Amino acid sequence: MKHVRLIRHGESAANAGEASSDHASIPLTPKGVEQAHLVARAFAQAPDLIVASPFSRAQVTAMQTVAAFPSVPFEIWPIHEFTYLEPARCINTTVAQRRAWVEEYWAKSDPAFTDGEGAESFLDFISRAQSFLDRIAEHPAQDITVFSHGQLINAVAWLIECRPQKIDGQAMAEWREYELTNHVPNCSGYKLTKHPDDAGWAVSPGELRVVVTQRVPGRSYQAVRDPERLLIEERAHALSDAGYPLKLDDDPAMYAEQRLEEARAEARSSQVGRVSQNTAAELSAREVSQVLREVIFGRSVMSKVGQQSWAHVYSGHFQVDVDGWRMSIYNDCDQLDYCEQCVSPDGRRWSFDSGDRFGTDPIALLSTWEHQTLEQLLETL
To answer: What's the pTM value of the predicted model, to 2 decimals?
Structure first.
């Protein structure tokens, strides 16, 4: 059985709303670097081959895993992101600033259209995705890890699941809808499998401890393999081994923060006079997640801070207020991504960089239904 992990790069500067001068050399943000580190830590065993896109953000993400398994071959394949807008006119623009050009391109629904020098047609893009599938099928490695980009990853999944007979305007429109519906978060992706006796590939739910969701009716796939959640679960089980047993009905990721606080409290109590005021002033991801659940279930009201709507932000941080709790939530091209920071009414703080390096994002603690409901609420603001 052949297994292929398709992993999107970590958060890039463009994902964070910054302007970019060259689509191939966009750097990772500090959060993206941390995400790449967490992915490398999530591997139970070494793959047989590591592959990356020629774009720097995918290579930097891959290098954390390459460093963890230095004996594994590392190769660069032409699995870069779909560049359908002319690069020259995109210099020093943000995702939000390019939005009108993006909508204009997809409205044409012309798979042979090329926007300008250095741009790629949809036909060429899909051809690259198919060539990738052919190459991994022929490669002797049985366990391959691939670091690429959201649209390329979804093109591969679309080819497997939808099996288009021809690439015409209708197919192009269908792929666009598929791509928007099945957004791939940073450092997440799919797992492909191929049995020696099977003619084609399958997109599978993945392996143990992988979160499986349903985003297309009848489709089960690994779109939310959250390495941060995985590590939280590992920490929860480590605490269990240290004397904090898990209940049978506990979700380890949901209660890991609480158990970590219990462990810290135990340690502090054994060191009289050495209680950290900084720790006391911190929020946990679980507390922030619970505030979001109060909104989801209608027990609290969420309002935007400022004039811009969720749709207007499009790609960047969106500020909200929930009964005095101020939060910054990241909008990734109209998709709810993660919570960057939160300040409680009494001044306590949570941020991505404030807690453990192996902490988690409050939004990652929500169920699939809760995540979808929160996204719908944000779209109304």
So the answer is: 0.62
